[in-house]
């Protein structure tokens, strides 16, 4: 269920955005659809998800109808600030979206299409647990307009999956990829490295297995220990060891090299694709700071410098919408130094990099030192952009501090 929601400014029951907020026609608009259901809770997971015993009256079978109510509310809110924009990207995340019937996901996507329209060539992604993927499900999603599936592989090594409390059969990953391919969908697989007891040899086996699946895209995320998770409690109790920073660095260097040799290009610190056309356009929109509306309990949204987040529990979310009220819990305006920090933090992570003129003038002298420390590509810097080297990607937080802190 994740940690507590951050505090912020109050949101009116109507959900109306602050005066002066504008829907800029030249800024892309994306949609995130959160499906907060899981069969079991993974020990490392800090996402806003719920198993059957945690729903406290919320219902999976009516969830799509509830979310469609928020889509209707968003139409009213966004109509008040300017012309509506067609969605360039749609992303079903979770949780496990494919725990819902494919027909429910199709209805949710239909609600987005009917309300805002989908831009020509829109990217529509569904996250999937390998055990919930069948040829019939993939075919129904493709017919509904889904273009891409992201499969939660995490590892191919059974004891690593067990350490992460992942219950899927690793053999089902290949079956899921084949089903998605048969339906004509682009395929991404997600990996996690640094699990308790995972060796470099284990990680190398998982990366090679992922490459053999021949997906279009691979995400490789370092395991992060989040407060409040089962894994955090186990580490505090000394039951398992905390991730080793040096080992995780070795794992990153291996995956970066192996994927490069296999024809994948990095385009964000943890994301690799076979050419630009297979990059996740939805995730790139986050890193570039464009506009999106996040639907569902705990989902975050951003429009024209205002960010807000919904109440967390599915029951509270449904109650707000049934009463005709916005499910937003609080919001904030991103400006000043906070906007600068966020821009540097996000844009420095992507391959196209950060324009040096976006760095505070007092910190631009730090660029020379970052080049000398082999954290920033010198050629890109000469052309006015900060692009991280492999070493820089390993030390991305240090680069951000150098570019923002006086």
The arrangement of helices and strands along the chain is EHEHEHEHHEHEHHEEHEEEHEHEHHEHH
Q: Do you know the CATH topology of the largest domain? A: TIM Barrel
Most strands sheet: 9 strands, mixed
**Mean pLDDT reading:** 94
Name the helicity range: 25-40%
Count of discrete alpha- or pi-helical segments spanning 4 or more residues: 15
Give the low-confidence spans.
none
The dominant shape is: globular
Computed CA radius of gyration, to the nearest angstrom: 21 Å
How many DSSP E strands?
A: 14
Q: Supply the number of structural domains.
A: 2
Q: Please, what is the CATH homologous superfamily of the largest domain?
A: Aldolase class I
- Strand adjacency order, main sheet: 7-8-6-5-4-3-2-1-9
Strand content: 15-25%
N-to-C span:
37 Å
| CATH class type of the largest domain | Alpha Beta
Derived structural class: alpha/beta
Task: Give the second-level CATH assignment, the architecture of the largest domain.
Answer: Alpha-Beta Barrel
InterPro entries: Aldolase_TIM, Coproporphyrinogen-III_oxidase, Elp3/MiaA/NifB-like_rSAM, HemW-like, rSAM, rSAM_sf
Domain Radical SAM core: 23-265
GO molecular function: 4 iron, 4 sulfur cluster binding; coproporphyrinogen oxidase activity; metal ion binding
Function: Probably acts as a heme chaperone, transferring heme to an unknown acceptor. Binds one molecule of heme per monomer, possibly covalently. Binds 1 [4Fe-4S] cluster. The cluster is coordinated with 3 cysteines and an exchangeable S-adenosyl-L-methionine.
């Amino acid at each position: 269920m994740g940690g507590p929601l951050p505090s912020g400014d109050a949101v009116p029951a109507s959900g109306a955005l602050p005066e002066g907020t504008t829907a800029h026609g030249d800024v892309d608009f994306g949609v995130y659809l959160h499906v907060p259901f899981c069969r079991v809770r993974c020990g490392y997971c800090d996402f806003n998800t719920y198993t059957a015993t945690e729903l406290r009256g919320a219902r999976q079978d009516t969830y799509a109808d509830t979310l469609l109510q928020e889509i209707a509310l968003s139409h009213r809110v966004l109509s008040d600030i300017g012309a509506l924009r067609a969605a360039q990207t749609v992303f079903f995340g979770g949780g496990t979206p494919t725990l819902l019937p494919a027909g429910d996901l199709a209805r949710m996507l239909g609600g987005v299409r009917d309300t805002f329209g989908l831009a020509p060539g829109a990217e529509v992604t569904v996250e999937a647990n390998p055990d919930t993927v069948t040829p019939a499900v993939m075919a129904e999603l493709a017919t509904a307009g889904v273009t891409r599936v992201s499969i939660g592989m995490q590892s191919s090594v059974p004891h690593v999956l067990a350490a992460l409390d992942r219950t899927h059969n690793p053999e089902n990953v290949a079956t899921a990829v084949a089903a998605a391919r048969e339906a004509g969908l682009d395929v991404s697989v997600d990996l996690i490295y640094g699990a308790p007891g995972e060796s470099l040899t284990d990680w190398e086996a998982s990366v090679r297995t992922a490459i053999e699946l021949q997906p279009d895209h691979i995400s490789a995320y370092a395991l992060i220990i989040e407060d409040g998770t089962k894994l955090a409690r186990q580490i505090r109790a000394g039951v398992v060891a905390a991730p080793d920073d040096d080992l995780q660095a070795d794992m990153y260097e291996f995956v970066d090299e192996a994927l490069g040799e296999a024809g994948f290009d990095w385009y964000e610190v943890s994301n690799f694709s076979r050419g630009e056309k297979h990059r996740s356009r939805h995730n790139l929109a986050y890193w570039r700071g464009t506009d999106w509306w996040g639907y569902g309990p705990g989902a975050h949204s951003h429009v024209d410098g205002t960010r807000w987040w919904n109440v967390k529990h599915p029951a509270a979310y449904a109650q707000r919408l049934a009463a005709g009220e916005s499910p937003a819990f609080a919001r904030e305006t991103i400006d000043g130094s906070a906007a600068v920090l966020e821009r540097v933090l996000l844009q420095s992570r992507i391959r196209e990099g950060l324009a040096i003129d976006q760095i505070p003038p007092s910190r631009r002298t730090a660029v020379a030192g970052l080049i000398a420390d082999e954290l920033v590509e010198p050629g890109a810097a000469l052309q006015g952009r900060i692009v991280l080297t492999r070493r820089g990607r390993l030390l991305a937080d240090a680069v951000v501090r150098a570019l923002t802190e006086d």
